[in-house]
Structure to design on (107 residues):
């Protein structure tokens, strides 16, 4: 499986390390969304992916388009107020992390 990320029109190709494939397949999107640790980050990541997919240089494959549609349906099944609360939590964690790094002299 090869993944391509076009953040800021940069392309990165990677091959997952085979020993992690079984573990990755055992983790579901529901596991991530239900997790107190990963839920807000997962929601933020998938919504950002959906909202920024139009900026990709290459036309997504039919498989990627179908996945995007399915994930869009999942996100719209979660009430807007819950999504906003997850985004707010993620933003607060990013802010806290930034402040901690700055107070420790790390950038």
């Amino acid at each position: 499986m090869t993944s391509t990320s076009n953040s800021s029109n940069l392309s990165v190709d990677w091959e997952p390390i085979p020993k992690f494939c079984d573990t990755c397949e055992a983790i579901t999107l529901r596991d991530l969304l239900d997790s107190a640790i990963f839920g807000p980050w997962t929601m933020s990541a998938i919504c950002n992916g959906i909202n920024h997919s139009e900026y990709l240089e290459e036309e997504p494959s039919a498989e990627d388009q179908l996945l995007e549609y399915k994930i869009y349906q999942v996100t719209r099944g979660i009430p807007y107020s819950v999504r906003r609360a997850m985004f707010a939590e993620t933003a607060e964690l990013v802010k806290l992390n930034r402040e901690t790094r700055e107070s420790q002299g790390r950038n």
